[in-house]
Design a protein that fits this description.
The complex is a heterodimer.
Chain A (H helix, E strand, L loop, with lengths): L6 H8 L12 E6 L6 E8 L5 E9 L2 H14 L4 H6 L2 H8 L5 H19 L11
Antiparallel strand pairs in A: 1-2, 2-3
Chain B lengths: L4 H6 L15 E2 L10 H14 L9 H20 L8 E4 L2 H16 L5 E5 L8 H10 L2 E5 L9 H8 L5 E5 L11 H10 L3 E5 L11 H4 L3 E5 L10 E5 L1 H6 L10 E5 L2 E4 L13 H17 L1 H20 L4 E4 L9 E6 L4 H9 L3 E2 L1 E3 L4 H6 L5 E5 L6 H18 L1
Parallel strand pairs in B: 1-13, 3-4, 3-5, 5-6, 6-7
Antiparallel strand pairs in B: 2-8, 7-8, 9-10, 11-12, 12-15, 14-15
Helix pairs in contact in B: 2-10, 3-10, 4-5, 11-14, 12-14
Classes of the chains: A alpha+beta, B alpha/beta.
Chain lengths: 131, 408
């Protein structure tokens, strides 16, 4: 359980490297976690080859959701969108290096859901995007 | 006589259990659902072991016994809130369904486009969404009694709203976030002066205060068993019989009918008119045992005990640097302490407290508009009941210092 608040998570929560907005951007999407009202917006710039050149997240939420968003931005910069589309729950858990119960899993996966809904151009960040 | 909390705690077996890491559970989430005394658990158990049968129409021994137990519970619940008759006590699934029953049956028969329904800014989603739905369907208008910085209803603004002659005023007797105990009798009296019908959400008040629906003069009053030592899956809609008599049925099916022809039916009399299908019988039995239990402990003593714990908790929490409390002072509220801790999200607060076995709730507590009003996405909420102790509050405070250290 102390693992849940590993230093790396607290660090990314308190001093995120990728918090902010991109203007202009190629892709932008935002959604909430209906359970707790956590909110995440993700902005991306994508180059001519379909590779993510810049990524930022903004919003508010718990340490798990915000650290996971920051780590996710770090992961996707330099990656082609095709690879981004393949990211799933397991990738996020490996990124965070922790195991999560069903409630906190929603916190951790919010940023990935928002990212994928944006990349796919969907109206809503559904759970099916990260299964 | 004051409440003997050590004696009370012996009735709640769950309070003895440990969490995964060997800590005794410290249950500070009774506003979400209360724990159940052994008297309730055994009443339901006995019902299934000895008396289980479907109610009404059966003539055999078990069916008669089950019917007597189901209807007997209704009588005791009626007495518990001082309804003038058990006919005014409709079993539902919960407070939410009770409110929806009024919205579907009474409101759809009585409200038309442009009619005003007055709610408050501190409502639970259960007393907002049914009216949003009716607004979309019917074009009724909604307006809201504002909440002051202190967390009280602005009664002057309410009086101004009444100039627009609302058809219905629906409000919570006690806020599930701020803990505010609203002046229900006064709000109802004012509503009646302009001819408005009044529905009260009593989900938080009936478990904690001695409620007298006749003294309040409420037209409708909704509450749930599971927040008052009873089981989940059963709630009550109290309604003055004149209203209930005039209302069309809500759900159709067995038990709510007097007579059915192939192409028509005649509805049953009260209260059965609103109880279609096989109801939650064991739950009704458990509910009856819960009101017996609360009556035996004494609602006045329960309220006094909670007040003492709440006052102590608010004082202790206020001392913690970075803690911000929401809602009025202890003399104006029930056993709820909603707070934020600077720099730490309420989810993280709840998770770290859980490590020490402390159960608090984090989020918007189904009152998102209220949180928006205060400019925060979420709060942590500790809530208290007849079995809560000052030692548990001390553990909470200690836990919060630990959270601060981790996020330091």
């Amino acid at each position: 359980m102390d693992d849940l608040y590993r230093e790396v998570i607290i660090e990314h929560y308190k001093n995120p490297s990728y918090r902010g907005k991109l203007d202009p951007h190629d892709i932008s999407f935002a959604d909430n976690n209906p359970l707790c009202g956590d909110h995440i917006q993700i902005d991306l710039r994508v180059d001519a080859n379909g590779v993510v050149s810049e990524a930022r997240f903004d919003g508010h939420g718990c340490a798990i959701s915000q650290a996971s968003a920051d780590l996710l931005m770090e992961t996707i910069i330099g990656k082609p969108l095709d690879e981004v589309k393949k990211l799933n729950k397991q990738d996020i858990l490996e990124m965070l290096g922790i195991d999560l119960g069903p409630v906190r899993l929603k916190c951790a996966l919010l940023s990935l859901k928002v990212l994928k809904a944006g990349v796919y151009g969907l109206g809503e960040a559904g759970d099916d995007l990260v299964e | 006589m004051t409440l003997n909390v050590d004696q009370v705690r012996k009735d709640f077996p769950i309070l003895d259990r440990e969490t995964a890491n060997g800590k005794r559970v410290i249950y500070l989430d009774s506003t979400a659902t209360s724990q159940k005394p052994v008297q309730v658990i055994e009443a339901m158990n006995d019902y299934y072991r000895r008396s289980n049968a479907n109610i009404h129409r059966g003539v055999h021994t078990l069916a008669e016994e089950a019917t007597t137990m189901y209807e007997g519970a209704r009588e005791r619940i009626a007495k518990f809130i001082n309804a003038s008759s058990a006919r005014e006590i409709i079993y539902t699934r919960n407070t939410t369904e009770s409110i929806n029953l009024v919205a579907y049956s009474w409101a759809r028969a009585n409200l038309k486009a442009g009619d005003l329904v007055v709610l408050t800014e501190m409502e639970h989603h259960s007393n907002l969404v049914p009216w949003h739905m009716l607004q979309a369907e019917r074009g009724i208008e909604l307006d809201f009694i504002p909440v002051t910085e202190e967390g009280l209803l602005d009664l002057e603004a309410y009086k101004t709203l009444l100039n627009r002659t609302p058809k219905l005023v629906s409000f919570t007797h006690m806020s599930n976030v701020l803990g505010t105990i609203n002046p229900a009798a006064e709000i109802i009296k004012l509503a009646h002066t302009v001819g408005a019908v009044v529905l009260v959400d009593g989900a938080q008040s009936v478990p904690h205060l001695a409620v007298d629906v006749q003294a309040l003069d409420a037209d409708f009053y909704a509450f749930s068993a599971h927040k008052m030592c009873g089981p989940t899956g059963i709630g009550i809609l109290y309604g003055k019989s004149a209203f209930l008599e005039a209302m069309p049925p809500f759900l159709g099916g067995g038990d709510m009918i007097k007579e059915v022809k192939l192409r028509s039916f005649r509805p049953n009399t009260l209260p059965h008119k609103f109880e279609a299908g096989t109801p939650a019988i064991a739950e009704a039995v458990g509910f009856g045992a819960a009101v017996d239990y609360l009556t035996q402990v004494g609602m006045k003593d329960i309220a006094a005990h909670e007040h003492e714990i709440t006052e102590y908790a608010l004082d202790r929490l206020e001392e913690i640097p970075g803690v911000k409390l929401f809602g009025p002072s202890a003399d104006k509220k029930g056993g709820v302490a909603a707070f934020t801790l600077e720099g730490v999200h309420p989810h993280d607060v709840a998770q770290i407290l859980d490590q020490d076995g402390i159960a608090v709730r984090a989020g918007h507590h189904c009152a998102q508009p209220l949180h928006e009003k205060f400019g925060i996405p979420a709060t942590s909420r500790a809530s208290f009941y007849l079995y809560s102790t000052k030692e548990e509050v001390d553990m909470l405070v200690k836990g919060l210092y630990k959270v601060k250290e981790m996020f330091g």
